[in-house]
Specification:
Elements: H1 2-18, E1 27-28, E2 31-32, E3 47-49, E4 65-66, E5 69-76, E6 79-84, E7 87-88, E8 102-105, E9 111-114, E10 125-129, E11 139-143, E12 153-157, E13 164-168, H2 177-181, E14 194-199, E15 205-209, E16 215-219, E17 225-229, E18 231-232, E19 238-239, E20 242-247, E21 253-257, E22 262-266, E23 272-277, E24 282-287, E25 293-297, E26 302-306, E27 312-316, E28 332-337, E29 343-347, E30 352-358
Parallel strand pairs: 18-19
Antiparallel strand pairs: 1-2, 3-30, 4-7, 5-6, 6-8, 8-9, 10-11, 11-12, 12-13, 14-15, 15-16, 16-17, 20-21, 21-22, 22-23, 24-25, 25-26, 26-27, 28-29, 29-30
């Protein structure tokens, strides 16, 4: 009896629905709505990758090609500074006479400068920067050392690369993570595999130090030590690999706490404010002039877009390693944006630098803008 009653109710509902006309195509006073876009997988977001943009160096030939491309800093759309771990073969063998550690390319990817005069000071240049507050556009490099008799250091060069104007290091590096972490109070320049930088309007800067020391060190514009915060661990204010730094208009410091798979947020004095958890392998934070927060996920081979309160809004990117798609990423490591909206992504494992240009039909809300420049 109950089953018969249920069947009768369903048949009555079906009859009522059948009497309702199917929805017509949406028509507004301005005419029919545009057709729905079908297909696609969002791999490039609102961008087109530029095919064949990254080219071999003049001295590359069998079996040598680029080593890990670890960093990128835009000076102008015609001058992009790139940090590379020298040269390697397809099976990962290091070239003994590498001379491609800091290079500069133009908008078409052509190599226009090789800073080989500094080869003796470079082994694993981790990331490269140009402070937006510096009218002289100095080029900064975080060098991880650990090979070729190169020390862990922070290096500051003139924009043309002719002069080294600042070097922070103590030249007595720890040999292992355990050795570094056995010293709970390292000195201001006693680095433990340093990683990243961020700058403030007064010329002071923050160093993420980094892989082993898990601290953030604040220096003034001349490189004098001011203060620091952080320690190893998983709690608030603790880190396990500081691998990204950025500062918003309220001087809140965003930290990519890589192995803890989260972003932590602090005051510039190191007071813990917030954390965004469950972000896979964050290796970089970039805040654009709209104050959108972009996070690079190395393992996902993607760039993630967040609001300032941590809401995930959009992402793009896809795997471009062996068997991956053309224009893809392979463990992306650093990102920068030029004044024309071109986006450059250093793929560490791939050994290349991608250039992406905005599509004409892209949703502006999904595009990256140049870096945020604070007015105070």
């Amino acid at each position: 009896m109950r089953r018969a009653l249920l069947l009768a109710v369903l048949m009555a509902q079906a009859g009522a629905w059948a009497c309702v006309a199917p929805p017509a195509a949406s028509i507004s006073e301005d005419g029919p709505a545009p057709p729905v876009a079908k297909g696609g997988d969002g791999r490039d977001g609102g961008y087109d990758s530029v095919p064949g943009w990254w080219k071999p160096a003049p001295d590359h030939g069998d079996p040598w090609t680029w080593g890990e491309v670890s960093g990128v800093a835009v000076d102008t759309p015609d001058r992009i500074v790139v940090a590379v771990w020298g040269d390697r073969s397809a099976d990962g063998e290091r070239r003994p006479d590498s001379s491609n550690y800091l290079v500069v390319v133009d908008r078409d990817g052509n190599l226009i400068e090789n800073w080989s005069q500094w080869d003796d000071m470079l082994n694993r240049p981790h990331q490269v920067y140009i402070s937006p507050y510096d009218p002289e556009r100095h080029v900064w490099v975080v060098e991880r050392g650990r090979g070729r008799d190169v020390s862990m250091s922070v290096l500051k060069f003139t924009n043309d690369g002719r002069e080294l104007v600042l070097r922070l290091a103590d030249d007595d590096d720890p040999e292992t993570r355990d050795e570094a972490r056995a010293n709970p109070n390292p000195g201001p320049f006693d680095y433990g595999d340093p990683a990243v930088l961020a700058f403030l309007p007064d010329g002071s800067f923050l160093l993420g130090d980094g892989y082993w020391n898990t601290r953030i060190v604040n220096y003034d514009a001349e490189g004098n030590y001011l203060m620091e915060w952080g320690e190893p661990g998983t709690g608030p204010g603790q880190f396990d690999l500081v691998h990204g730094l950025a500062v918003d208009s309220d001087h809140r410091v965003y930290v990519a706490d890589r192995r803890n798979n989260r972003i932590q947020i602090f005051t510039k004095e190191g007071e813990f404010l917030d954390q965004w958890q469950d972000i896979t392998d964050p290796v970089g934070v970039f805040i654009d002039e709209r104050e959108t927060v972009w996070v690079i996920s190395a393992s996902l081979h993607r760039v993630l877009q967040y609001s300032r309160n941590g809401e995930l809004r959009h992402s793009w990117g896809t795997f471009g390693g062996p068997g991956g798609v053309a224009g893809g990423l392979f463990r992306p490591h650093q990102i920068d944006v030029d004044q024309e909206g071109g986006v450059y992504v250093a793929s560490w494992s791939g050994g290349w630098l991608n250039k992406f240009v905005p599509r004409a039909d892209a949703d502006p809300a999904t595009l990256m803008l140049p870096t945020l420049v604070l007015d105070r």
